[in-house]
Design a protein that fits this description.
Elements lengths: L16 H9 L2 H9 L14 H15 L18 H13 L12 E8 L3 H16 L4 E9 L4 H5 L9 H8 L7 H13 L6 E5 L12 E7 L5 E6 L11 H12 L7 E6 L4 H16 L2 E6 L15 H28 L1
Parallel strand pairs: 1-2, 1-6, 2-5, 6-7
Antiparallel strand pairs: 3-4, 4-5
Helix pairs in contact: 2-4, 3-11, 4-11, 5-8, 9-10, 10-11
């Protein structure tokens, strides 16, 4: 990769949220990416009053370069044909936009460290990275929480063309064929990463129809490590009983049902770099704005993870997640502008 772009301030990590959203949207990286795929980069700039309209234009553009439409699982998407120059520009742009780098935490002390669930790799990699930060003394945490939902891996495997990339095959290579859903995988990944025994307490409710109404099931497993660290693993309920909880709903479940957030509290979110901006924008909207807390989101992987947990991300995968990132950015901009008007 020979191209480089300056890194704009990630919205939600600077002092002026609306200005940072504007600068991120009209950054050199975003303009170059749009131009590389024959879009109109000039549509990204304009008056502050048109901020959401400009984000809408960008979102419409992302539909032309995304192979993951209709909210299908990420691991079912096809590759997008592109030239070497387009691939190079894509990787350079998403690097500047915060989707590839492993940046260190800004602080040492955090009230909460959160890891988000996902497919099998995410459920092992993110807790392992968070545990490494804690165990190496890079950060201290008042409490650690893994947030996920009830995602049936068998259902997501049906559309995956490569049999080696199906969740059942990955679980088998890890030596854990029993991992059939996200909650099981996230719980095991967290227990292994933090060296946990049996839970001290388990709470939750089962859906009367798990196959058709998975969103009604929720659960929290409470652990206590030998050094006294509180670790919890949660599967949040969904606002729509027919589907699993999405990222915003897991944040809401954490804030409303699992803790009492105090103004000024520091939250460190640990995820995979490619998803960091999207999950950060949602966390700023769902946690930082309403609760007046500081949210920081980082992505990373431990270097010595098992081969089955390693996952290359192609330019197409970054473009697919740029679409969800822009969608999260628009929701954040709407809330930020509404608060500014009430101001």
């Amino acid at each position: 990769m020979s191209t480089r772009f300056p890194r704009p301030t990630l919205p939600g990590s600077g002092k002026d949220l609306i200005s940072d959203i504007d600068a991120y949207l009209a950054s050199d990286a975003m303009r170059a990416l749009v131009a590389a795929f024959h879009g109109d980069p000039d549509g990204l700039s304009g008056p502050a009053a048109a901020l959401t309209e400009r984000i809408d234009r960008l979102y419409e553009f992302t539909a032309t370069v995304s192979t993951r439409l209709e909210d299908k699982e990420r691991n079912t998407a096809d590759e997008l044909p592109m030239t070497p120059d387009q691939a190079d520009t894509t990787l350079a742009a998403v690097t500047a936009l915060g989707m590839r780098d492993e940046l260190p935490p800004r602080h040492r002390e955090y009230d909460h460290v959160l890891m988000l669930g996902g497919l099998v790799r995410a459920c092992f990699n993110r807790p392992a990275y968070a545990a490494r930060l804690v165990d190496d003394g890079v950060v201290t945490a008042g409490a650690v929480t893994a947030l996920g939902g009830h995602r049936d891996f068998e259902a997501s495997d049906k559309s995956v063309k490569d049999p080696n990339e199906r969740e059942a095959a990955i679980s088998e290579r890890l030596g854990h064929p029993e991992l059939t859903d996200e909650y099981k995988a996230l719980d095991l990944g967290t227990r292994l990463a933090f060296g946990l025994g049996d839970p001290e307490h388990v709470e939750g409710e089962e859906s009367p129809d798990p196959e058709n109404l998975p969103g009604l099931t929720w659960g929290v497993r409470h652990y206590r490590r030998g050094d006294g660290l509180s670790v919890r693993v949660a599967a949040a309920p969904s606002g729509d009983p027919k589907r699993r909880a999405h990222t915003g709903e897991t944040y809401a479940f954490f804030a409303e049902r699992m803790t009492s957030l105090k103004p000024g509290a520091r939250l460190l979110l640990v995820t995979t770099p490619i998803y960091a901006p999207m999950q950060h924008f949602t966390a700023v909207r769902m946690l930082a704005l309403p609760y007046d807390v500081e949210v920081e989101t980082i992505g990373g992987d431990v270097p010595d993870r098992a081969p089955a947990l390693r996952q290359p991300f192609t330019p197409t995968k970054y473009l697919n997640d740029l679409r969800t990132t822009v969608r999260a950015l628009r929701a954040l901009a709407e809330d930020a502008l509404a608060r500014d008007e009430l101001g």
